[in-house]
Amino acid sequence: MSTERYNPREVEQHWQAVWDERRLFAAENDDPRPKYYVLEMFPYPSGRIHIGHTRNYAMGDVVARYKRARGWNVLHPMGWDAFGMPAENAAMQNKIHPKEWTYDNIATMREQLKLMGLSIDWSRELATCDPEYYAQQQRLFLDFLAAGLVDRKTAKVNWDPVDQTVLANEQVIDGKGWRSGAPVEQRELTQWFLKITEYSEELLSAIGDLERWPDRVRLMQRNWIGRSEGLRIRFAFNTPPPTGDACLEVFTTRHDTLFGASFMAVSPDHPIAAACAEADPELAAFIQECRTLGTSAEAIETAEKKGYDTGLTVRHPFDDRILKVYVANFVLMGYGTGAIFGCPGHDQRDFDFAKKYGLSIIPVVAPDEVLNGSDLAAWVAAYSDQREAFVGDGRMINSDFLDGMSIADAKEEVASRLESRAIGNAPEGAREVNYRLRDWGISRQRYWGCPIPIIHCDDCGAVPVPESDLPVRLPDDIDFDKPGNPLDRHATWSKVACPQCGKPARRETDTMDTFVDSSWYFARFTAPRLDTPTDRDVVNAWLPVDQYIGGIEHAILHLLYSRFFTRAMRKTGHLDIDEPFAGLFTQGMVVHETYRDAAGEWIEPAAVRIEGQDGDRKALHAETGEPLTIGSLEKMSKSRRNTVGPEDITGLYGADTARWFMLSDSPPERDVEWTDAGVEGAHRHVQRVWRLISRLAEKLQPPGQTKPAAFGDAALELRRHVHRTIDTVTQDLERLRFNRAIAQLYELTNVLANAANAGDDADLGWALREAAEALVVMFAPMMPHLAEECWRILGHETLVAETAWPDAEPDLLTVETVLLPVQVNGKKRAELTIAVDASEEDVQSAALALEPVQRFLEGRAPRRVVVVPNRIVNVVA
């Protein structure tokens, strides 16, 4: 092969074939070396990947290759999150079976990923739509059911009447289905639930132990679980409601503000609301209107606050005021008791509601700066004219026996008093802990998902499918001509005999939420062909995942469900660990300019020609010459058509160029802008490294030469730089600072290029080989194909992928001298090499003795000399 120019297309195919032939990246479960498990969140096989998808895989690959070089037994697998609604949509639109669509996409995306030279153990590849995978998921479901971790109950859901399926809260946009655009209905459906709330406190308290997770993610999980300590208060009705209840029970975390109560409110789904609506058509219509909001807390929070006066009233527990009871659209049935007391003075939702309906707003907490001044009365008088409720800290006012207390003391006093009083046989108040977290509804009314292994019998009820009958396979002969769940319409699939009594029965036709599929795949990778979900010894040896990499968009649900699943699998005997992921890294996105034509259509980058630079840049259609509008930088996405395929880059520049650019151009947690100029710059570096190593390979002695007993100044200085680089790059890679490690490698390349022009002394030749080999081994995790080719021309018969990471020699890490720039009147005029521990006086004297400095001073004494230790010298003439 010519050393004039590096040919990535030829080289990369060759070394990928060599790695595959030697099964270099296949992890062995019985390997005696310490284990390291690195995993990127597996992709959904949507069709084709773009270069933006490959950034997190490149990061994971650097970690895997680096750890393998450090002597670890590395597990780095790949799979496909393959069930889901997009496959059904494609089936309906393109008249293709979801299975065929999915497996075709997997084949395409697998080949695209392989172009990137990832060190993946493909022997462990799995797809969640493989029957051998979902058979074990069905076993887990049955084990969870037997352990009391599965429940079946009615629940409110978002129902799309056109697609005839349940929608997640995130799929309801402005009260309409994300795909159909139809107004969403709230329905009560019987659903299967996983009892994640059994672990609410454990999931919350263990977050503090996740020391290698980003603080932002840990906070998001804490907020989602939402632990709140408060008081359950019973308000006595003046006239019993249709339900016959004597009291309206509320849960509150702000019982200190009880004297600020001016109304009561119940959820539209509260039993009292439903009972009142039976005799009140207007209330029934209002409740139906509320149900168009969807079920998410976010949708309810942002909606206009509306209410309906039920005509019911309750008595305030301390001052006997009469409070009206409303049905309000912002009260959630799923939190607390589904009822609140409204304190407009110190809750923004209550404040907005009171403003709308002309209810009193009584401030009962005042900030210290108001209390310490002389304008408290004026502050209270003007309070109702404010736009926002005061929700900060302060002391109690307008609260009878609480006046002057802190919020904490007031809460304690209210709780103590209400706990000591009773209405009937129950206390008026009881301390309580509540969680925002709700049990996980996993039922989905669609075909392309894991079947729930339950059979419904009129006599026996819900009966588990016998394990010997697993998996419950999806039928292939399916009809998508009508909306809704095709399994409901299948002529034979759901008709089975009851396993207990033998009578005719029906299969469960709902399938599992796809979040279930991704909540345990990391465990399945440890033994993917086993006829049980896990091999307990093997999974305990590999888990937790040492480094998990993925997008911040999965910070809550996927990660929380995976943490729950791990605990449920522990309870059912499938593993013995608590947490699935020891380390978590959330990478930034790859962004690209967007382009539109005059009709507003998105144009892909491959069809765009850029002319001019900076402020004069303009975009033209490459074929028609039509002027295009250059839009903002956006995350690469098919909808914006601003994607670049990996095959486009590897065919032109090679995978190593793409990997180097994505890793070098920005800190890994931040977004990186994909630009032609950036890619071309990375490619120039690839070619420069190739030329440098090729030149050195021609002049150096073969590998294995005896190390000299002593080194001259030039060789010693080169070795010091090499070993300092080894030390720094090692630390950077341990901390996933890929861009900083690459910056060090750029510098070492420059140093090595300069040293290559020096003399031919034997000690320098040995040091040059050491430097060249260290450089190649250190950039191998980022540019593995180039590294193998460089390793070969350096005379090695082994693979760099099997070569140990270099160790820095401690004696060479000590910096004895430093090179300081010397400025005269702010401009660099010379450089000074001096001992790092030199005194300021010695640095000044040495700098002033330099010939360029003396020439500019012209025999005059300087006005002053500023020395920044080990950084710079500035002489003011």
Explain what this protein looks like in three dimensions:
This protein is an alpha+beta fold and about 900 residues long. Helices cover about 35% and strands about 20% of the residues. It contains 28 helices and 40 strands. It has a 4-stranded parallel sheet with strand order 2-1-28-29, with helices on one face. It has a 4-stranded antiparallel sheet with strand order 6-5-9-21. The protein has a 4-stranded mixed sheet with strand order 13-14-12-15, with helices on both faces. Helix 1 (about 10-20) crosses helix 26 (about 785-795), helix 21 (about 655-665) packs across helix 22 (about 675-700) and helix 24 (about 740-755) packs antiparallel against helix 25 (about 760-780). The longest helix is centred in the last third of the chain and has 24 residues, at about 675-700. The protein is globular, with a radius of gyration of 34 Å. The mean pLDDT is about 90.
